[in-house]
Write a structure and sequence with these properties.
single chain; 10-stranded antiparallel beta sheet; 34% strand; globular
Length: 245
C-alpha cells in the first residue's frame, strides 16, 4: 500500500509513545521505532498552511526506512496551535511522496509528483537563482525541527506566512543531514507559495521577497533531490570518520 502502515494516536497515546521513545522504546515496537528515528541521520520537516489551518510533517530516514509524524495545526490570535495527538506513517522511500501528500493542502501545484516537472532536478538552488543575484534565504528562516518528538512550529510561534497577496497556501521545508549528533548539516531549505493556482519559489534577495514561478511537481522533485543530498552528506562524513580511525 502506497501510504504504508498508518497509526493514529490521540493525545494520551501520543504522550505515552513519546515517553517510551525517550526511555529508549519502553519495550514497545512503536516506542522503539520512534526512539530509533530520533537519532536519524537524515531528517526533514514540512510546515504547510492554507487559510487558518495546516499541518506539520516530520520525516526521518533510517536504513532505508521512513517514519512520518503528521500533526494538524491552526491559527489562533496570530499564533500557531498544534492539535493534540499525531498520525505516524511507516513507509518505504519509493512511496514517500504519496504518503506526504496527506500533509499538504489539496492544491494540485503543491501535491503534483516529481514526474510532472518533465526534467530531472540536478541543482534546484542554481536553477532558481539563474539571475545571479544571490539568495539570502537561510535554513534559520524556517521555524522547524525534524526531531519526531519535538513538533515545530511551537504554540508560541507566529503563524507561517510569506507576505504575498492572495496567497492560497504556503509550504516551508527544511532537510538536514546529521552524520553524528555533534555534526548537523543543513542541506536545503525552501519556502513555497501558491497564488492563483501557480506554484512560487519564494526567496529573499537583498532583503526583498522574490517569488519565482516554478512548474507543478517542483516541490516533490526538489525534496527528492535534497534527501539524496542529505544521504550523500552523511556517507561523506562517515567515510571521513572511518579514515581517521
Amino acid at each position: 500500500m502506497a501510504a504504508g502502515r498508518i497509526l493514529r494516536l490521540d493525545a494520551e497515546q501520543w504522550a505515552t509513545v513519546q515517553e517510551q521513545a525517550r526511555e529508549g522504546g519502553g519495550g514497545t515496537a512503536v516506542g522503539t521505532a520512534l526512539a530509533e528515528h530520533q537519532k536519524a541521520p537524515v531528517r526533514a520537516t514540512l510546515v504547510a498552511t492554507s487559510g487558518d489551518r495546516g499541518s506539520t510533517a516530520r520525516l526521518t530516514l533510517v536504513d532505508g526506512r521512513v517514519l512520518l509524524v503528521l500533526q494538524a495545526i491552526a491559527e489562533r490570535d496570530g499564533e500557531t496551535v498544534i492539535a493534540p495527538g499525531a498520525e505516524l506513517r511507516f513507509v518505504q522511500p519509493e512511496n514517500l511522496w504519496a504518503a506526504l501528500q496527506a500533509a499538504l493542502p489539496p492544491i494540485a501545484a503543491l501535491r503534483a509528483p516529481a514526474s510532472a516537472v518533465g526534467a530531472p532536478v540536478t541543482d534546484p538552488a542554481s536553477a532558481a537563482d539563474a539571475d545571479g543575484d544571490g539568495d539570502d534565504t537561510a535554513a534559520t528562516d524556517s521555524p522547524t525541527s525534524a526531531d519526531p518528538t519535538k513538533p515545530r512550529p511551537s504554540a508560541d510561534q507566529a503563524w507561517p506566512a510569506t507576505a504575498l497577496d492572495h496567497e492560497e497556501a504556503n509550504l516551508q521545508v527544511i532537510v538536514e543531514a546529521w552524520p553524528t549528533p555533534e555534526r548537523p548539516t543543513t542541506v536545503w531549505a525552501r519556502l513555497w507559495s501558491v497564488v492563483d493556482g501557480k506554484l512560487l519559489d519564494v526567496r529573499r534577495r537583498g532583503g526583498a521577497i522574490t517569488p519565482t514561478q516554478r512548474p507543478a511537481g517542483s516541490v516533490a522533485a526538489e525534496l527528492q533531490w535534497a534527501l539524496v543530498g542529505a544521504i550523500d552528506a552523511v556517507r561523506e562524513v562517515s567515510t571521513e570518520l572511518s579514515s581517521e580511525s
